[in-house]
């Protein structure tokens, strides 16, 4: 166990998380007379809105996930600690983080918690084995391996039934992530991979987008949802609304329609983009406050100044906070974190917590891209789609990408992908596809499960041997 100490007596701010909330909160404190410690379990600032482009071979990880340490290099009052926060003590004002087997305790005077949300399977966590979500770099790389791997396996399939199963891609959830992913898998098979196989025609791929509600992009309203739906259908995406996925296994999904019909879709590659669950640190904090609660998704129902009851020095921002009319989007996190940093600075100048003006969210709108040259966009009452919306999407994402290098490389990759047919990031390895499952099996001690899992998922002999070896090594160690 190590303890972080600061001897200069300056106000200590601990920021947890290096996503939009964590990074923008830290940056906003650049000129403040404070010492900031940013603790995150990931070493990068991940631009989640472009994860689907990593999954579909357009961008590399580096473009959307610069190292936080490098981003903050010039911020002299900030230090970065890698580690998963395992405990927050609101009585003693400390944060405990863990890196491998080393615990570190970091004291704070002010705390900004921005640990976001993770995928939710609505109580069916076993679905995750076969239908990974889209929240992390690992998710995106695993998915890239699964998507490209399905085409490769289809090339070798010996029956039409197996070929069809391998060329069926099921995406659960028709929010922005589901829509963007469906559009990109359709373009990948129709444009990029077309003519690159001998035994299969990638254009035969079936992309199925399943949504429990009655509309695509529900929160964006019927006009934009309808536009997105029509565009996707034109691209050959099958949209199934009012359909609930009630089971997922290695070979496909089971779906229940609104009239009670239960049916199967055989599919090798499934993606889950249907729900989110807030980081468990939210409940940990709420339980120590003077009565702050968490909502059904585990988000902290914060006070008007984004703090928890009885602790005006503890701010919860971003996807982890529950504030009416503030969506779980990048802008909510950026504005919440900037607000928290401002309150900390005002406090240093003598402002009492009760003098704080409540947090006000400025809705800058939302957008989703469907395919190259087509997006939908909502700014205030203005709703539009098509090429102009796509240009707006392009400009906005470039603006928020961190770092000049990332922006330049991204523009080049987009140029190659959208104007040509190629994609620059089509590499995938067996490890990306199977490492998560192997690691989970090892940590659960499920030797046989890992072996069966690898077999059921169609792993090659090599990767089965690798799983075996990992078990043997783990046992020996
Ligand atoms: C696929 C996808 C597409 C999206 N598209 C859009 C879009 O187009 N437009 C838009 O506005 N929003 C979009 N969003 C939502 C947006 O990305 C989030 O609202 C935003 O990232 C929330 O920021 P945050 O800082 O609260 O959390 P995050 O960005 O999720 O960051 C959380 C941070 O906390 C760290 N962390 C978590 N737990 C711990 C722990 N215990 N200890 C230490 N560190 C921890 C993580 O490593 C991470 O660095 C998308 C999200 C996803 C997943």
Automatic annotation (TrEMBL):
EC number of the protein: 1.6.5.9
Pfam name, any one: Pyr_redox_2
Domain of life: Bacteria
Record's keyword annotation contains Flavoprotein: yes
Residue span(s) of domain FAD/NAD(P)-binding: 12-336
Transmembrane segments: 384-402
EC supergroup of this enzyme: oxidoreductase
Catalyzed reactions per annotation: a quinone + NADH + H(+) = a quinol + NAD(+)
Keyword annotations of the record: FAD, Flavoprotein, Membrane, NAD, Oxidoreductase, Transmembrane, Transmembrane helix
Similarity field: Belongs to the NADH dehydrogenase family.
Protein name (record): NADH:ubiquinone reductase (non-electrogenic)
